[in-house]
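Protocol step 4 of 6: structure prediction from sequence.
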Amino acid sequence: MTPREGESAAAQTATAAVAMAIGNKLTVATAESLTAGMVAATLANTPGASGMLQGGVVAYQNSVKAGVLGVSQELLAAVGSVDGHVAEAMADGARRACGADLGISTTGVAGPEPHDGKAVGSVFIGIADKSGTGSFEYSFSGDRHSIREQACEAALARLLAALSDVGYRS
């Protein structure tokens, strides 16, 4: 699978991630808050994605983060929804719920107003596999649409990096 001319950076990264996941016989699930399905959709737009994408959860509300993904109510009450530990729990919840090797999550503030005491543009990407979880913090700028696109691109880049790492260890 090679990038097509005129493809966005996110689509090119998705193409590489799909190829790597399939090559390493790994599956992926998503849990998305501020991106509301953009990561899963970008992966699904890639030919061959059915060989690696298990499913995804749009968890815009904390009730879905807790009820579907298993994010602790206590954690959400203590830190709010925009936090690295929440991103990790979301990614792990998606991985478990969908029976995938890897989970990737997004949570953050797209704007126009701050949320949970976090500034517009604050984003956390979570990654989970059977060996554990990790999260990455970003600060993006721009309008709501731009912040969501940047978060999607960052999530796909982190997914590709995680697939590279898992592939290397396997």
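Step 5 (inspection) to follow. The mean pLDDT is 94.
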